[in-house]
Amino acid sequence: xxxxxxxxxxxxxxxxxxxxxxxxxxxxxxxxxxxxxxxxxxxxxxxxxxxxxxxxxxxxxxxxxxx
Length: 67
What we know:
Elements: H1 8-23, H2 31-66
């Protein structure tokens, strides 16, 4: 019948070569950028938590006042 070509080894090498090429394109941020972004995320999380707690307190007070 028909013969098949086994090019599995070539596909794996091509995949890893492509992976290595793409990985070399990554630009990692410096320490100052990471510090600033971490501070921004943490302060946003704290602010959102405080807003949520304040809204919860207001709603709880309103419901207890109504009931």
